[in-house]
Amino acid sequence: MLRPVNNVIIISHNAIRSIRRSKVIKNHRLNHQITAREVRLIDDHGKQIGVIALEEALKKAQEVELDLVEIAPDAKPPVVKLIDYKKFRYLEDKKRKEAKKHTKQSDLKEIRFSPFIGEHDLETGLKKVKKFLSEGNLVKISIVFKGRQMAHQEFGPKLLTNILSRLEESVAQEREARFEGRRFVTILRSLKDQQNKHETKDQKSSSKEIQNNSDRQDTPPPSDGIPSEKSKKQNG
C-alpha cells in the first residue's frame, strides 16, 4: 500500500512483493486474479473435477495449499488447475525449451554480387553461400546493377549460371530467377537435407522389409493336418 508521509511516498513490503508477483504471473491468471464466475477444475493429480463456481475452486486450492492457475482462459468456461505456480512455470519453460530444441528454423540469408564481379570477390561470396546452405538456411542471391550497368542485363543470368555451376549439384532453386528492379534475384536451398531425409526413410523401409522377410522364414509352413515322415517314425 502507498502511504504519503511528509510528501514522501512510502511503499510497504507487501506492496513490493505484490508488484514483483504481478510481473511473474503476467502470462497466467491465478487465484483471485481469475475473473470468471465458473471454471472447469482439474485437480493436482490431473483428474477433471468438472465445472464449479470460482469461489468453490479457490476454497479447494486453500485446502490443499496450492495455487489455482488459469491454464486455458479462452475456453468456456475457463480451465483452471490446482498446482504450485513455481512448479507450473518450471514445467511450461521445460516444454518450450524441448519444443525449441526439436524445431529447426530456416533463415533467409542474402548474398549480393556485382554483375562484373572479380574472381576473388566471387570466391569469397561463394564461400559464404556454401556456409549458409550447410547450416540449413535458404540463400537469396542478388545480382545488383548500378547506373549504366542496367544496359547490360544479360550479365545477370550469365553470372547466376556461373554461380550455380560452381555450387555443383548440391543446391536447387527455391524460386525462379527474375529481375526485381535493379536486382536479378533467386533463392537457393541445399539438397543435402532433403537427400538425408530420403535416405533415412529408405533405410527404415529396408529394415522393415528385412524384418518381415525374416519373420516369414522363421514361420513354419502349415501342416494341413498331415503328419510328416519324420513324425511318423518318431511315433512308431
From TrEMBL:
<dbReference type="GO" id="GO:0032790">
    <property type="term" value="P:ribosome disassembly"/>
</dbReference>
<dbReference type="InterPro" id="IPR001288">
    <property type="entry name" value="Translation_initiation_fac_3"/>
</dbReference>
<comment type="similarity">
    <text>Belongs to the IF-3 family.</text>
</comment>
<keyword id="KW-0648">Protein biosynthesis</keyword>
<dbReference type="InterPro" id="IPR036788">
    <property type="entry name" value="T_IF-3_C_sf"/>
</dbReference>
<dbReference type="GO" id="GO:0005737">
    <property type="term" value="C:cytoplasm"/>
</dbReference>
<dbReference type="InterPro" id="IPR019815">
    <property type="entry name" value="Translation_initiation_fac_3_C"/>
</dbReference>
<keyword id="KW-0396">Initiation factor</keyword>
<feature type="compositionally biased region" description="Basic and acidic residues">
    <location>
        <begin position="227"/>
        <end position="236"/>
    </location>
</feature>
<dbReference type="GO" id="GO:0003743">
    <property type="term" value="F:translation initiation factor activity"/>
</dbReference>
<keyword id="KW-0963">Cytoplasm</keyword>
<protein>
    <recommendedName>
        <fullName>Translation initiation factor IF-3</fullName>
    </recommendedName>
</protein>
<feature type="compositionally biased region" description="Basic and acidic residues">
    <location>
        <begin position="192"/>
        <end position="207"/>
    </location>
</feature>
<dbReference type="Pfam" id="PF00707">
    <property type="entry name" value="IF3_C"/>
</dbReference>
<dbReference type="Pfam" id="PF05198">
    <property type="entry name" value="IF3_N"/>
</dbReference>
<comment type="function">
    <text>IF-3 binds to the 30S ribosomal subunit and shifts the equilibrium between 70S ribosomes and their 50S and 30S subunits in favor of the free subunits, thus enhancing the availability of 30S subunits on which protein synthesis initiation begins.</text>
</comment>
<comment type="subunit">
    <text>Monomer.</text>
</comment>
<feature type="domain" description="Translation initiation factor 3 N-terminal">
    <location>
        <begin position="31"/>
        <end position="99"/>
    </location>
</feature>
<feature type="domain" description="Translation initiation factor 3 C-terminal">
    <location>
        <begin position="107"/>
        <end position="189"/>
    </location>
</feature>
<dbReference type="GO" id="GO:0043022">
    <property type="term" value="F:ribosome binding"/>
</dbReference>
<feature type="region of interest" description="Disordered">
    <location>
        <begin position="192"/>
        <end position="236"/>
    </location>
</feature>
<dbReference type="InterPro" id="IPR036787">
    <property type="entry name" value="T_IF-3_N_sf"/>
</dbReference>
<dbReference type="InterPro" id="IPR019814">
    <property type="entry name" value="Translation_initiation_fac_3_N"/>
</dbReference>
